[in-house]
Amino acid sequence: MQLRYAFRLYPDTGQQRALAKAFGCARVVFNDAVRAREEARAAERPFPKAAELSKRLITEAKRTAERSWLGEVSAVVLQQSLRDAETAYRNFFASLKGARKGPRTGPPRFKSCKDARQSIRFTANARWNITDKGRLYLPKIGLVKVKWSRTLPATPTSVTVIKDAAGRFFASFVIDTDPAADAVRMPETDRSIGIDLGLTHFAVLSEGTKIDSPRFLRRAEKKLKKAQRELSRKQKGSKNRDKARLKLARAHAKVTDARREFHHQLSTRLISENQGIAVEDLSVAGLARTRLAKSVHDAGWSSFVHLLEYKAARYGRTLVKIGRFEPTSQTCSTCGVKDGPKPLNVREWTCTTCGTLHDRDYNAAINVKTAAGLAVTACGAPVRPEPVLAQREETGSHGFSTGNHAA
User: Fold this and answer.
1) Quick one: how many helices (H) and strands (E) in the chain?
2) What 3-state DSSP class applies to 165?
3) Per-residue pLDDT tens digits for 39-84
4) Is 7 exposed, middle or buried (0-12, 13-18, 19+ CB in 10 A)?
5) How far is CA 201 from CA 67, 253, 303, 350, in A?
6) Residues facing 322 on adjacent strands
7) How far is residue 25's CA from residue 140's CA, in Å, rounded to a whole number?
């Protein structure tokens, strides 16, 4: 399995200028590739091949007066940008044919220098390396200071340099994990658990544990509103507006980082303690269109479940998603009788058949575990005969999102 490990970079002023130049050159090559494709489509000609685009947009373009500055950055950066354009079109066509899972992907769009995220990628051909003193050497950029928060478990295959909306720089390394080392780190256990995700409590476990919702966005809302007001009062195009925008972006980044850290710590603990985990396949997109939208986004259920998926695949755990229409809140976990729907303000209810008083969330967590077939027998073995591992896929959003705390 491949994971991303991200570390904060601290380039000096000259290196920041070099990185800005590299971001711009990569963006120009990407846009030129999209433009060449669109012109071919409008003229009803076949799409140009990758080799033809590489020759025309990079090799020959460097010899012209209009694109001579492309030679001031690493050629690998330009080639990878061209490859990103090819991948974007491949994903678009696969989505049109229904061969790609998830929401339909739109056609590639032109990139802008005002985009919140800028990135470039160096492969092994670029001859980048990590020095003995812990600096990251990048071609035509130099030795960049890195804050190493952990040791890389293996030799990286590539590095992506990212600048986020808050003006922070990150180096995201792609690492191939070692299954033997992962098995030693988290040995098998005989425990299994069901999780009921909610808003009053972020998660209620079938063993009775209730995990409070940190509400990171709600707690920072006053500060965010103030920063937003200050931004709206600044004149467009002024330096003070740029400063206000950075201040707002950094405030949002703190909320995002705190939520991600909470998700990583909780998911790692659940994966390490349990061999089988069951969760509901919630319709987050649907819930985000209700009056609870802000709280739903603040909880970040999709990100949390995604972390459980890749960690379960990495450490050989069983993750089961039950259907979103399973009546977990309506069914008595003691006698199994369905007692009908209940409004959200009903947090406790008594079964009319067996008379058991239920905590709504705790009862739902037990039903989630039962519906997934993860009930434990006397010998400790899961009842589910053929556990299916979560889909193996690379972690992270925005490239560095999971790598910083990958477990």
Assistant:
1) 11, 14
2) coil
3) 999 999 999 999 999 999 999 999 999 999 999 999 999 999 999 9
4) buried
5) 56, 23, 17, 21
6) 280
7) 13
With contact defined as beta carbons under 8 Å apart, do 304 and 311 qualify?
no
Q: How many CA atoms lie within 13 A of 46 on its CB side?
A: 4
Nearest C-alpha neighbor of 153 from the set 185, 188, 124, 105: 185
Is 361 assigned a catalytic role? yes
Point out which residues pair with 170 in neighbouring strands.
8, 162
Amino acid at 62: K
Tell me the mean pLDDT in the region 175-179.
90
d(Cα 137, Cα 143) in Å, to the nearest integer? 4
Q: How confident is the model at residue 384 (pLDDT cuts 50, 70, 90)?
A: very low
Contact assessment for residue 186 and residue 28, using Cβ atoms and an 8 Å cutoff: no
Q: Considering the entire predicted model, what is its pTM?
A: 0.85
Which structure tokens are listed for 330? 């309506």
Which amino acid type is present at position 294?
K
Q: How far apart are CA 58 and CA 79, in angstroms?
A: 8
pLDDT at position 342 is 84
pLDDT (0 to 100) of residue 375: 53
Residue 402 exposed, middle or buried by CB count within 10 Å (0-12, 13-18, 19+): buried
CB-CB contact of 290 with 193 (8 Å): no
Angle between helices 13-42 and 75-96 (to 10 degrees): 40
Q: Give catalytic status of residue 60 as yes or no.
A: no
Which residue among the candidates 32, 164, 309, 361 is catalytic per the annotation?
361
**Catalytic entry in 196, 212, 230, 348:** 196
Tell me if residue 125 falls in helix, strand or coil.
helix
Active-site position among 280, 339, 386, 394: 280
Q: How many residues does the chain have?
A: 407
Sign for the pseudo-dihedral over CA of 22, 26, 29, 35: negative
pLDDT tens digits along 16-45:
999 999 999 999 999 999 999 999 999 999
257 carries an active-site annotation: no
Residue 95 has pLDDT above 80, yes or no: yes
**244 closest CA partner among 234, 256, 254:** 234
Q: How far is CA 212 from CA 3, 262, 383, in A?
A: 29, 11, 30
Does the pLDDT of residue 378 top 90, yes or no? no
